[in-house]
Write a structure and sequence with these properties.
2 copies of one chain form a homodimer.
Chain A (H helix, E strand, L loop, with lengths): L6 E5 L5 H10 L5 E5 L11 H17 L4 E4 L2 H14 L5 E3 H12 L2 E6 L1 H6 L1 H9 L4 E6 L3 H6 L6 H16 L4 E4 L8 H8 L4 E3 L1 H15 L12 E5 L6 H9 L8 E2 L5
Parallel strand pairs in A: 1-2, 1-3, 2-9, 3-4, 5-6, 5-7, 7-8, 9-10
Helix pairs in contact in A: 1-10, 1-11, 2-3, 4-6, 4-10, 8-9
């Protein structure tokens, strides 16, 4: 009975759909409920207390949808609110992208680069988690704040983006980093641009892939994998809805959104 | 007595400080109370109801500070919520950047370009207001969504920004626009880049200048100009405060912020 419950995923916005994409690959038979807090995006520039508060509201919404696990797709929430949520909601297993990606990265390389938003990098969460899993690695971090607006604007082939990428990744390239964590839900969209800058030998870690594998292993171990024959259903909820959302959402998800995005209200 | 009351200014974030800069130039003896709703910035991607609601809360805060007039520095609020606020708060004169800039632009040119965020351009507010003041002008609009992130990152000399500006302003240049409204609080910061793209003959309208002049004329007419000898005091309130704010605020204001930014809470 428990098996058939959906997986809950939340993000500050729509970028977390790149995580849903990976969950769908690894766990094609699972139903997924997604919540994007688009009315209050971006979390990255907000203070810690308010991020915890928003994350708690998001988790409560997903629990109301009777999910069997919660995945924090948002890097900022993962950095700031994961421990708080795990402490608050002891009955539901909570997964988050940063811990999963850190665990993956130390298996792959010795000189690990991390790129992300200003908030994620500033939090130091990736360095902390990487060091938790291995003391013998070097970590180099770099905030790349202009990547998100370029991606959200769909300006993926712009020469300007290549110039920005070249500038941001300059020191990581010089340092001879062997493994790079794409520490923002948006970055897998520009994977090829990043790879071009750093050379084809670079090992890229997509935290969406890492957390999807971890959720798979957990559900398998616990005998909680959904054994239905049909493919999983997806439901998408957002806290604010404007015209461009569906288009942007489909870019992140990498497929057409069949059911509509549904607008809901978390608090007044 | 009424004369000595401050001027109230609100914006969704810190960009409205470019409007404060112009108010200070035109009205150096006026005290100013500024509210930047940084906890809920950006308004541009939000729905209409929520923008009205936020704008009403901002206005209420300023009225609590006993202001003699309210200036809406935010283009999105001006586009979406100005009429709503004027209707709701009949006792205080409310000024807004779009109407003021439109009035100015029709005095200057016949072929008027307007650049702004996706939300401002999408609202059609500039076209509507320009047509209200003159039927005999052509209007060409263009959303320039990547300008704001470049400016907020302080990436003003980046070659990438020049490429973006060239792309965004291409059609406006080709159309032979004679007057351009910089329809976003941030854009005066890249005035020289815009001017370089469009040639030195282009007449630029800074809505901050337009609204500052209009407020000046109004206060003068009503005998409400502050006649104190000292320079006006400024107070800055924000709804969320992070480390980078003071630096970004000083870029927009064009001067050091002597008093601290004060964090306040508008609603839970």
């Amino acid at each position: 009975m428990k098996k058939s419950k959906p997986i809950g995923v939340f993000d500050s916005g729509l970028g977390g759909l790149t995580v849903v994409k990976q969950l769908t690959r690894v766990l094609p038979h699972e139903d997924i409920v997604y919540l994007g807090d688009t009315a209050r995006v971006p979390y990255g520039s907000r203070g810690e207390q308010i991020i915890k508060h928003f994350s708690e509201e998001n988790t409560n919404f997903l629990l109301g949808k009777n999910v069997k696990v919660v995945v924090i797709a948002c890097n900022t929430s993962s950095a700031v609110a994961a421990d708080y949520l795990k402490d608050k909601f002891k009955k539901v297993p909570i997964f988050e992208v940063i811990d999963s990606a850190a665990k993956d990265a130390v298996k792959k390389g010795k000189k690990i680069g991390v790129i992300g938003t200003r908030a994620t990098i500033g939090s130091g969460a990736y360095e902390r988690d990487i060091k938790k899993y291995s003391k013998n690695v070097k970590v180099l971090v770099k905030a790349c704040p202009l990547f998100v607006p370029f991606i959200e604007e769909g300006e993926l082939k712009s020469k300007a983006l290549k110039i920005i990428a070249n500038t941001y990744l300059h020191n990581i390239r010089l340092a001879g980093v062997d493994t790079l964590i794409m520490g923002c839900t948006h970055y897998p969209i520009i994977r090829s641009i990043i790879k071009k800058e750093l050379g084809s030998n670079i090992k890229l870690v997509d935290p969406g892939v890492s957390v999807a594998r971890e959720v798979f292993m957990f559900l398998k171990d616990k005998g909680m994998l959904n054994d239905q024959e049909r493919k999983g259903k997806k439901e998408f909820f957002v806290t604010d809805l404007t015209e461009r959302f569906t288009k942007v959402a489909e870019m992140f998800l990498g497929e057409k959104i069949k059911s509509q995005l549904k607008k809901i209200e978390l608090s007044k």
